[in-house]
Amino acid sequence: MVGRKSALALAGLMIVSALSGCAAGSGGSSSGGNGQAVENSGKAELPKSAEPVELVVADGLGDFPLERFNKVFAEPVKKKYPHITLKWIAAGDISKRITAGEPIDLVISSSGLLQARVVDFGLQYDVTPLIKKYNYDLNKVEPAALDMFKKFGNGAVWGIPSFMSPSPLYYNKDVFDKFGVPYPKDGTTWDDLNELSKKLTRLDGNEQYYGLFLSFAHVIRRNQYSLNVVDPATSKAAFNTDAWKSVFEQSGQFYRNPNMNMTTASAALAFQRDAFIKKRSVAMWLPVSTLHTEAELQGMNWDMASFPTYKDKPNVGPQPYPVAFFVTTSSKYKDDAFQVASFMATEEYQMEWVKKGEFLTALKNDTLRKSFGADTALYKGKNIKAMLPDTYAPASALTKYNGAAETIMNSTFTKYILNQTDLNTALRGAEEETNKKIVELQAAEKK
């Protein structure tokens, strides 16, 4: 994910769309700002005499601190392109600027927030002509991440995946040692992980220990079977299936262990996160898309293992969850904005910050992968390889209704792990609720 503090929001990321005009702002024009290009070894570049420009960058992640933005993004861009100054605005200011007719040049967002922070405002813009003009090599990018956004944009490229949300299984060695249980290993299956969890889940005196907690919302988005949440052809719920039922069961088995003593309070994700980070009564924690900070892990005897696999999907990790800088249709400086966005997706820019542990790369680059955290003591001796899978699951379809469907699915999962309903009944009810909600959203779109 992008800055470590922001990894929770990343929950999705970058995006690629198509050249065909498929949504607001997907036109092919790439002019504007300092658009005159000069040739240099076959690659177009901004002229050396480019006039100074200020590019407004919106926080489409929701919690990225200004200080970190300046340090990690604005200053390196100024060094690379002295005529470009980046101005940061909060996520809550996006709609205000649009209402006031004030342009936004770039939005940094994830695949999970692309719809809400870019598409819903009609800011998406197909940068395919700019990719060709400036000769950016898309073969450098993780194919699964690029494919995810091409699917969303029906082939148009709205952004170049730059950063990737991690997907390790964090674990607290002290809890394992306390109960004499061996640590999890890379390549462990969901079922084998559940067997480990059973050995660690217990009431010890007055202290409740939990074997494993996870973020099911992110399991949905990154499911390894590449299952659709909403059918893109019919805009109907697509999760009342045997395959989805298996995903619910595999994730729910950890919670349905009677020794977990689950309550409404402990079913909340905030409780589970705090139990691992603060109370330290959780053996294993699978946030799915989080890069924890040094402050959060301070004093914990921790390490990581790779994301669990399904027996029938060996060696297949979760779906990608990329982050990108999206050039917007409202920008008057699209060429300059693209230079910034594409610079973020280069080894030249990323190496320093990857070594410092600021984010993981969405580039298909082994050197960057292996260099993560090399310059920080936090990751010394840690299983860095576990942070990203060797093989991503293919991208499932992203639709404008995924968010609504995922909210209902997550609520259904909570009812299931609290034994408030059987799974078949729960999925049928969730399907009906989702389809009703989609109809309501479609009606609202026509107003």
TrEMBL record:
InterPro entries: Bact_solute-bd_prot1, SBP. Pfam families: SBP_bac_1 (PF01547). The keyword Glycosyltransferase does not apply. Residues 1-23 form the signal peptide. One of its GO terms (cellular component) is cell envelope. It is found in: Cell envelope. Keywords: Signal, Transport. Belongs to the bacterial solute-binding protein 1 family. PANTHER family: ARABINOSE-BINDING PROTEIN-RELATED, SN-GLYCEROL-3-PHOSPHATE-BINDING PERIPLASMIC PROTEIN UGPB. This is Extracellular solute-binding protein.
